[in-house]
Amino acid sequence: MADKTNSLTYRDAGVDIDAGNELVRRIKPHVRSTARPGADGEIGGFGGLFDLKAAGFSDPVLVAANDGVGTKLKIAIETGLNDTIGIDLVAMCVNDLVVQGAEPLFFLDYFATGKLDPSEGEAIVEGIAAGCRMAGCALIGGETAEMPGLYAEKDYDLAGFAVGAAERGNLLPKSASIESGDMLLGLASSGVHSNGYSLVRRIVEAAGLGWEAPAPFDPQKPLGAALIEPTRIYVKPLLQAIRETSGIKALAHITGGGFVENIPRVLPEHLRADIDLFAIAPPPVFGWLAKTGGVAEAEMLRTFNCGIGMVVVVSEADAATASALLQSAGETVVPLGRLRPRQDAAVTFNGALAL
Question: If DSSP codes are grouped into helix, strand and coil, which group holds residue 196?
Fold first, then answer.
């Protein structure tokens, strides 16, 4: 008879294969809901397939991006609000694709945890599927890893990988055509999005507030729920505007580094973005963070989006048309300023944030 003290199983070591199979069973309907031309919305193979020809491309350039959601995950873990963090994961990737002029085609996720809970995993993947539907891309695969000893039992981590395409010659930025006098349009954010949460959490801790306390900037919601508002996905309105007007020359996704770090990434070295801060109406959360944390305006502008999640560089002649198209698609459009000849700084500010 075998010695039972030596008859260990994978489950004894902390990895439950049955829980993994149950998660796959649960998420299949969510994955199917993301089907689009080029992908059938099924999972289970060793790799995901995508048919570029079926998606309507003739001479495409592929564009890839990957990202995570940073320490915003800690709020999701500590509050148990896991159903929208997947939207953030998709948003951080697909918003980076569209700034290149690319249509997101497919998405893959990586979900690692200390102990797999199929219901929690389903909530996370359901959010990922929702984000994919918002962006028009297919969820074609992913990886779930149960790693006891590397992660605490309740902890988990997420990473996302997205691939898009644009017809050759249609990529952004159109650097050769960007010139002084071009206009800057800002698209409103839904809140903090997915950057700066290490500072956000430090401010919450210093304020002595729990996640269930009423949010000081939105008393109708618990603080945790207010701070976990998902990142806005700008893909469909921007793709429509790009296709219907030739005047959009560049886009900048305002993520970590704020205005100061992200806008210069799409500008020629001889131009600067001159931004009117009076034009921005920051959501109340930013005023609370600035005041409670004693965060200076300059630090706010290089850490957070401060209410603007995407910046559009557009010719003056096409600015009104682009703005109208974006507004009709549900975006709040703010005239932020213009491009000017660069002297020292790549981004200059006029006025002050209304924090």
Answer: coil
Backbone angles phi, psi at 159, to 5 degrees: -140, 145
Three-state DSSP at 244 gives: helix
Q: What is the end-to-end Cα distance of the chain in Å, rounded?
A: 73
Q: Hey, what long-range contacts does 265-270 have (CB within 8 A, 24 or more apart)?
A: 266/99, 266/172, 266/173, 266/313, 267/173, 267/178, 267/313, 267/339, 267/346, 268/175, 268/178, 269/342, 270/341, 270/342
Q: Tell me the C-alpha distance between 105 and 163, whole Å.
A: 6
User: Is the separation of the CB atoms in 178 and 250 below 8 Å?
Assistant: yes
Q: CA 309, CA 188: separation in Å to the nearest integer?
A: 6
- Could you list the pLDDT tens digit for every one of the 355 residues in the chain? 455 557 887 787 777 777 878 877 888 888 889 999 999 877 777 888 899 999 999 999 999 999 999 999 999 999 999 999 999 999 999 999 999 999 999 999 999 999 999 899 999 999 999 999 999 999 999 999 999 999 988 899 999 999 999 999 899 999 999 999 999 999 999 999 999 999 999 999 999 999 999 999 999 999 999 999 999 999 999 999 999 988 899 999 999 999 999 999 999 999 999 999 999 999 999 999 999 999 999 999 999 999 999 999 999 999 999 999 999 999 999 999 999 999 999 999 999 999 9
Burial pattern 247-263, b for ≥16 Cβ within 10 A else e, equals bbbbbbbbbbbbbbbbb
Cis peptide before 173 (omega within 30 of 0): yes
Helix (H, G, I), strand (E, B) or coil at 162: strand
| 242, amino acid identity | I
Q: Give me the numbers of helices (H) and strands (E) for the chain, helices first please.
A: 11, 12
Beta partners for residue 304, in sequence order:
none
Q: Are strands 347-350 and 271-276 parallel, antiparallel or unpaired?
A: parallel
